[in-house]
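re: that chain from earlier
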Amino acid sequence: MAKNIRILAHLFFVLFLITLGVMNILVLDSSDDDWYHNTYSKIRIITSEVHGELTHIGVEVLLEDNTYTYWSNPGDSGIEPSIIIKNKYINDYYINWPTPNLLKDEFGTNYIYKDAVLIPITISLENYEYGDDIELDMNFGVCNLVCIPINQTISFKLDDKPTNYSKIRYKLIQNALKDIPKYRSDNIIFINDIIFYDIKSDDNLQIIFNERIDAIFPLTSDDYFLSDNQSKQKNYMNYNFTFRSYDQDFKNKDIKMTFLIEKDEQFFLEDFIINP
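^ sequence. v structure.
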């Protein structure tokens, strides 16, 4: 009997040590050592192991309660974020913007992130020299009672040794990549047509759908700006925007528009080419 008690005690002690080890790993991964603190927010870079000539890093932003920041298209009154990677050996990278939330208030319609967001970035390492400093420069807005523009520059390095990277952080990035909206693979198209109509001096457009959708978010464009003027509903068979072109000759050109569409809690991208 005493022997069994000693064995059980030993097993509990071993399990206790294992639990402490796991807790220590989690604590180390969520420590404040790599966070950069700003007004109402903090930001850090998450790196993951290299696969071939590609790697993914993550820009993680944590926000205080009742605080938000903006999507790549901030909407009517938001601060448009920018992320720039600086390294003489890195010329090719792509920012994977997660799905935003819709905010409609007295200032118009904005597209935002609340609480926290992890933004994965795909980087080509074809010419990168491992161990060389990489600089990430991020400008973004953080809003509580007022909106505050923030600039944060973070330097980091990459190497090609998998043992130097946290598996927990690797999974964080992979999970974030799974949630990045993509084009549908089943050839289902929801946008039936886009028509223009004039009200006073502004050009307005209406998007007509083949079936009801739950929400639509216009991606940012260098050629035009879309301002949401649709009243909020449960779902939509059509949707109205005010259209402002940056090109006075836009009516003589084809315009490619890209939208993020929500249908049954799923998000996907869809393009439509119009000629006003």
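The chain has two domains: 32-180, 191-274.
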